[in-house]
Specification:
With 311 residues, this protein is an all-alpha fold. The chain folds into two domains: 1-138, Serine Threonine Protein Phosphatase 5, Tetratricopeptide repeat (Alpha Horseshoe); 208-301, Serine Threonine Protein Phosphatase 5, Tetratricopeptide repeat, CATH 1.25.40. The chain has 17 helices and no strands. The longest helix is centred in the N-terminal third of the chain and has 18 residues, at 65-82. It is globular. It starts with a helix and ends in a 10-residue tail after the last helix.
Amino acid sequence: MDSSELYHIKQQFFLGAFKSLVNLTLPDPNSPPYIPTLLYQARAHIALNDTKAALQLLPSDSENIAVKAAASLARYISVTQDTDQEAIDASLEEIRDLAVEIEGDDVDASEEDISTVRVLLGTAFARAGEVEEALETLGIDTEDLEGVCVIVQIYLSINRPDLARKQFERSKRWAEDDLLLQLIESTIGLVTGKDGYSNTNSFYTEQLGNPSLTSPHILTARGVTRILRNEIPEAKSDLEESLEQQKTDAETAAALVVAAGLGGLKKSEAEELWTRFVSEHPDHPMVSDVLEKESLFDESASKFPVPPAAA
């Protein structure tokens, strides 16, 4: 059973309170909570896109396979930012080697560590677009709830909410009704719009009422939910508050652009916000999508000559 401190660390990680986690003081290296705490702190650094800090934190000489997997994930994400395909391929091979290692009969690791490794490696494969490898590594019949959470996110990313829902329903048969199970249900609800997003909105609101939690990610999630519920002023408020806590977060900025375009700001202010977003996040999928549609519109418009004005 987890200690109360480790339980709280898990809750913070699942709810995206990453900045709180990276500032934690690690316990004694010889104590049982050391490795789990170390891993969640390193993963929080990775989630904040600070792979350098994660690699500095993880001991390079550790024989713990979960620590190795966390380092491999950090290295993979780091090399993808440099777009060096040779380095990316080499990093993926390192991850595949670890995936093979945990399937061996002689692996020296606890079940908890192996479950963590599956989540870390599955995350790497999912980010690489290797969906089948990700699902095979995670195991679609897993009874590790964190693994189920990643599987659900993968299914939602490939537009298979039906399979995501099956994973959730399967998990309810053996998992306790804990925070992570509620988070999975809310994530599915956010994508599918079940019950007008009411359950999802209630979940995020409940978590934001926790005085011991500061999570801009939950604020962003509720902001997106409120956009979908057509609560634009409230969504704008959530997203602006989230950006105050994480000024460079592209997804929050993208959501704010959407809210602004739906009436959250005056037209001139919305256009200015869009221009700034394009400048700061030129590679964001929303920017690419809008620019592509602009190009298609211009191409189509060029095929229809404008007749002269009537005299």
